[in-house]
């Protein structure tokens, strides 16, 4: 992640807390909302349908939060603390981000029933 200048961070925060009359969810027009997880489960991105994201790292839930935008297969993140990041969806179920590969998780894994 790269730090933003103070003015860019202020702009990102203003955009993230926009008070437009149009619902934010109406602006998200991509098929990627949902949970994305590394194969080891350590990094988890939840792309919310309102254009916000919540990232967990290991045991640290909500390690990073902010807004995101998708253009084509490219995703850009603006963290609430002023950092930026990006990634690429290589298909509908695979996200490359920061040297990691995250895969779509359709629903949480259910425990296997005992025999």
TrEMBL record:
Region forming the signal peptide: 1-21
Superkingdom, natural source: Bacteria
Gene3D superfamilies: Uncharacterised protein Atu4866, PF11512 (2.40.128.290)
Keyword Methyltransferase: no
Keyword set includes Signal: yes
One Pfam family in the UniProt entry: Atu4866
Keywords, sorted A to Z: Signal
Name of protein: Atu4866 domain-containing protein
């Amino acid at each position: 992640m790269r730090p933003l200048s103070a003015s860019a961070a202020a702009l990102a925060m203003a955009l993230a807390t926009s008070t437009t009359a149009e619902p934010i969810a109406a602006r998200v027009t991509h098929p990627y909302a949902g949970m994305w997880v590394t194969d080891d489960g350590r990094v988890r991105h939840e792309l919310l349908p309102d254009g916000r994201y919540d990232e967990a790292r290991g045991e640290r839930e909500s390690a990073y939060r902010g807004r995101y935008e998708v253009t084509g297969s490219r995703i850009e993140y603006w963290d609430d603390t002023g950092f930026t990041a990006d990634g690429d969806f290589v298909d509908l179920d695979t996200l490359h981000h920061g040297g990691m590969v995250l895969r779509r998780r359709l629903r949480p894994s259910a425990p296997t029933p005992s025999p």
